[in-house]
Amino acid sequence: MQLLLSNTGRRWTLHQAESLGPGQVPFDLGPAPWALLLELSRNRVVPFPREADVGVLLERGLVEVSEVPVDQAALELRAKRDPLEHLSRVAIEFTTACGFNCLHCRNAAQAAVTEGDPARLLPAVDLMAGMGIRHFGFIGGEVSQFGTGWLEVARHIRRWPGTTVTTLTSGWFLEREDFMAAGRRYGRDMDLLEDLARHGVSHLAFSLDGPRAVHDLWRRTPGLYQRVLGGITKARQAGLKPQVSVIGPALPWLAEAARALYPEAGREAPPALLRRLAQDGQNFMSNLVDVGGAAALRRGRIQARAIRSEDLPCKGFFRPGPSLRLNATGEVTTCPLMGDAPGFGHLGRRSLAHILNHMQGTPLFRLHAEKRIAGCRRFLSPGFFRGGVDHICAARVAVTRIALLMQERGVDPEDAQAVRSVNEEVARKMGESLS
Length: 435
Known about the structure:
Helix content is 35%, strand content 14%. By secondary structure, the protein is of the alpha/beta class. A hairpin with a 2-residue loop joins strand 7 and strand 8.
């Protein structure tokens, strides 16, 4: 038997080694265990048991014991395939509840769920921060409205030096008076903004879905775009760093928002303002994927028959980056489009350290890392995307969910009726109509 660094152990050790000065030892670890971690991080073959006390390392999930010999070459390959290497953010989906009914909402076909035990997030936060993750984001739903208890988690995060806490919002509270937000009553919008800052929120990202008319139409809220522009200034006055979460690239219609975001830019021309916005790493730029409510906006640019099996594997499921997601359902995953589908594990049943250390053995990981999903294309019913899709990720999500559900239920691939039944269930959860 021999000792190996776990996934979290490798990330934690490398971060500590970069942060500590010469000869220093982590405050919560003795010299002998620390020396052992450094030896393992150099891909050395270390037999087990050995003289150094490894109990604390095993208990914290920093090392694991392999009963199968692993040679130097295999250790180096294991290090190169480190699934946590590219993580730089944690997205905490505290709730999927929302007071809006947006046309493009990907959660439109799913029942709302809110984190019922905020305290279980604290050890997860500490683990990720200890591994060097410094950027945490609260997403929804509308966490600032329905995420009761989220501000205590935000405050806990900011105890770690150098961390940032961002929350995404539609700006639902702007220009309101005497309203409830996440279990607290506020007299005006500035009261809420100032309370966010007091609890450690550093960045407030407003969602913008398109030019003024498009944004207000998709959000079904006339005048919201203009209120968001005003909210950018209010957020800055409250001590928050305002940002935007945008669907699509930095197009000319964003110049007005960029001018509000960067008053220091003065009279900069629109192209320069747009470059500022696009290069600001705290802004979020994403594609509109026709999943959930957005399926109703679909134009069918890609015909279903043209979707190739080899295009389905996604690296985001086995070398995730930049974000790891803690879903409101309790699932730990990476893709925001997967809804309530199984991820790498559930925080209600296992610690985050255990989940991350065993992610390579999960069906979701293996489905994509081993390209098994390519062979699952045949299980997608012909009527699932009869009119085609706009983004390959819509098909990727459908096939992934179908494959996971078939494996969970032990469905015989040759049982056409059972496969059809799985398709129908996945279609309902994705807001699709299986014709």
